[in-house]
Amino acid sequence: MMPEISRSLHYGAVRDRARIYLAIFREVSARYGQPAAISALRAASRAHGLEVGARLAHLAPRDFSGMLDSYFLGPGSETYSPDVRELSATCLEVQYMTCPLKDGWREMGCSDDEVCTLLSCATGFDDGVWQAAGFDYELETWAPGKIGCCRTRLTEKRGT
């Protein structure tokens, strides 16, 4: 558990990352169009996720308790208020109840559609993490009217 000051600083740092994502997204959209901006932001997010996921690969194929402790409940996780919905021998499902990225975009006046688009771009990170870590996953991003933010469900990778 992080001390409150550290938690606040971490939350602020991630929220500031939302500002950078938005600035890049808007700049690339203005220069090359929104499809190019989505592609670029997703690719950059995915590249970062591949780096993070490689450090978690020792937990594949089914150490869901280890993944919960190392990733979802690890240092800084309080920032996202993870709610563990399922932990079993075959699955780990976690619902994030808070998200400084989403909060940052909303504070900057982004519409619900913009927030959904930016979250979709940010899920490139998740694609990279779970591919490199060696897990199959389902990801449900936030949509207007939903509580919290994204929900992740991990299972053992099927086939190669």
Automatic annotation (TrEMBL):
Q: Which InterPro entries match?
A: ATC_hydrolase-like
Which Pfam families does the record cross-reference, listed alphabetically?
A: ATC_hydrolase
**MF terms (GO), sorted A to Z:** hydrolase activity
User: Record's superkingdom?
Assistant: Bacteria
Keywords assigned by UniProt, alphabetized: Hydrolase
Can you name this protein?
A: L-2-amino-thiazoline-4-carboxylic acid hydrolase
Provide the species name: Roseobacter sinensis
